[in-house]
UniProtKB/TrEMBL annotation:
Organism domain of life: Eukaryota
Keyword Signal: no
Keyword hit for Lipid metabolism: no
Segments traversing the membrane: 12-30
Keywords of this entry: Membrane, Transmembrane, Transmembrane helix
Designated name of the protein: Nucleotide-diphospho-sugar transferase domain-containing protein
Annotated Pfam families: Nucleotid_trans
Limits of the Nucleotide-diphospho-sugar transferase domain: 102-300
Species annotation: Rhynchospora tenuis
Length: 333
């Protein structure tokens, strides 16, 4: 038989062999770290904003939810999750608080980058890696920078997804210390309950300035629509973060979707914006109105140490009502 005939006969087998071995070659090359995976391998998993939601999310939500189908959520990047940073203070406050340590089993931590996820798994059993295409969330994000805005709006979109899956959630920023259970101040008849940057005396008044870093949301059609429109309003205010946009559109959205919003008095869910010092009432303290990771960490550490000193007092010393937490040094006027 002529050589060219042999070549023709063997060509199909050769091509078949190449096709069969190609996946193994690619797996070795990219899996070993010699290259990055081509975008076509994972592009179909992402939504129109580059966020992927995999099958692990509903499983984790089921595993962490309370009997009321409610999950406590917070989010971290590498800088916030680093040792002795915000995540450690946040978790420590649950252990130091009054009868709230058990709530940690209902806490799902959203990691915004791989190293934050690794650190999260070292200190907490329930962690979810929110994969976002083409964005690095690992370093400290300067307030109102482009990466900062992408991060907070990505978190906002995840909250919408959790509502769509049928779960209620209590979102708490990681720069919040928990001392007591704040859930008794959450209205069961409202759709959304916000902590307040500034509270003006009426829990129903939309004059209160909503704190988007501490919010309880009940899963229903109304709140899903609310969140979708809130997120879409970003296009109208492209250089604003989610909380700023919320305070601009809350009147319109509550009217449009017949959503009931309530606000928590800062006497109970306090913050650096409107700092309250009555330690007998305070449930949480938020390092809002403060820029800079180091500034937040220093002030929260002082406040947590003060809380521990308060807990060590005798019953009669506490009853005198003279103990006050140190005021934060980092406050924007």
């Amino acid at each position: 038989m002529c050589n060219c005939c042999v070549t023709r006969l063997h060509a199909p087998s050769f091509l078949l062999g190449v096709l069969l071995t190609l996946p193994s070659i690619l797996y070795f090359w990219y899996g070993a770290g010699f290259g990055t995976w081509p975008s076509f391998f994972d592009s179909y998993n992402y939504d129109d904003e580059g966020i992927v939601y995999d099958e692990e999310l509903p499983i984790l939500l089921r595993n962490t939810s309370m009997d009321t189908n409610t999950v406590i959520l917070t989010s971290v990047n590498e800088a916030w999750a680093a040792p002795n940073s915000l995540l450690d203070l946040f978790l420590e406050s649950f252990h130091a608080g009054e009868e709230i340590e058990h709530l940690l089993k209902h806490l799902l931590i959203i990691a915004m980058d791989p190293r934050a996820y690794e650190r999260c798994m070292e200190v907490h059993p329930h962690c979810y890696f929110l994969k976002t295409k083409g964005i690095d969330y690992s370093s400290e994000k300067v307030y109102m920078s482009k990466d900062y805005l992408e991060m907070v709006w990505g978190r906002n979109k995840l909250q919408q997804r959790i509502l769509e899956l049928g779960f209620n959630f209590l979102l708490t920023d990681v720069d919040i210390l928990w001392f007591r259970n704040p859930m008794k101040y959450i209205s069961t008849t409202s759709h959304l309950t916000f902590a307040s940057d500034y509270y003006f005396g009426n829990a129903k008044s939309l004059r209160n300035v909503a704190n988007g870093g501490f919010v309880y949301v009940r899963s229903c059609n109304e709140t899903v629509k609310f969140y979708k429109s809130w997120h879409q309003a970003r296009k109208k205010y492209p250089e604003q973060h989610d909380q700023k946009v919320l305070n601009k559109v809350k009147r319109d959205l509550t009217s449009r979707y017949h959503v009931k919003i309530r606000f928590i008095d800062t006497a109970y869910c306090s913050g650096f914006c409107q700092f309250k010092t009555d330690v007998k009432k305070i449930c949480t303290i938020h390092a809002n109105c403060c820029i800079g990771l180091g500034n937040k960490t220093a002030d929260l550490r002082n406040i947590l140490d003060d809380w521990k000193r308060y807990k060590s007092l005798s019953f009669w010393q506490k009853r005198k009502g003279q103990f006050r937490l140190r005021a934060p040094q980092c406050r924007m006027r």
